[in-house]
Amino acid sequence: MLAQTYSWLRSHGVDSARILYFEADEAWLRHGSRILDLVDAYERHLRSDILMIPRETPCFLLIDEVQSDPRWDLTLKILYDRTKSLFVLATGSSALMLHEGAEVSRRSHDVRIGPLTFSEYLWLKRGLEVSRDLKDEAFRALFMSPDAKTAWGRLNELRHVGYLNALGTLPHELEEYLIVGALPRALALKRNDDIMRMSLEMERRIIERDLAGIVPMDEATKSKVYRLIHTLALSDRSSLESLSRDLELSKPTLIAVVAALERAGLLLRVRPFGSQATRNRKTSKYAFMAPSMRAAHFWDAARPLDDHRVLGPLLEDAVASGLHMRGWTGPRVQVDYDYHDGGADLLVGNGFDPPIAIGVGYGSKDEMQIKNTAERHKIRYGITISERQLSLSEDGNVIRLPKDMALMLL
Prior knowledge:
alpha/beta; Rossmann fold
């Protein structure tokens, strides 16, 4: 992103002398220099204080791995307060540490980068492009219609436009995406085993570097955190009480660790649908923001990755994650689930209107989950995501959505 920004600035006539790029971690390790040290050196290069930079010819500061400077947030606050002629774009691999930057919370625009969506994966892998406007229109049709018949009618009109229904994709590509394709780095690797090891190594770095800097923990606790993630990957619904007991981890520490894993972008908490008391009392379940991260734990547990019992949870992760990320840049999206036996896998709403109940299955999927939830809660309509073709149920209350198409519009 920083390289693209640099190229864009140069293509728009910005002199290279007005653009400073550096990696904060390398500057610290090689020279013991912090961000302010480099800005001071930049001022000497410009032969001018940054306070004197003219507004009509601003300078641009591009910083990678910004969290490597322990006081990065205070530093950026100082720069922001000193001049409005210096544009700062800072990136970092530690979402958790960047979230802790309280000093810049009111002075910055925070852009979260999630895992690849299915359409992004297809675009990067072989140039299959889907119009963003088309995806947005289809998403609104599916989740913002007053009833299932209206949603199905609008969606049916759009299905033959572009590649909305994944026309042209190969049969195995959805499976590949769920297992290895949500992480951009995996595109450069050929063997699934290498991708699985890379994913687990990324997770280890989150625990060793990011969590350990936020939640005090010794080596024994770090080991328990890995066991916690492994347990959640193989069984997404476990009460905090049982996890605390099984892992021999105090409940306050467990709560702090799980919250940190959410902020780090590894886990997505899906809360039980109902009143606030119900949401606090009943057990949450956890999706993985990148289904590939859960797949790595199935691989580590020697589970066959082409089994529908494995692909089903990965597909549910991709749907929950995609809906959650939709809320980052658009209208609010609240993702819950029906905690009753046989209830809907997901309940999607905006916090005001009745939610939409979703059942997810990699193979076949009937409407029983939707009907069970509709008997307990007022819902707008239902959606099943499975191998079936796009159609409307006989009673007109459930849209049957093929899994390829579902992921293409997220």
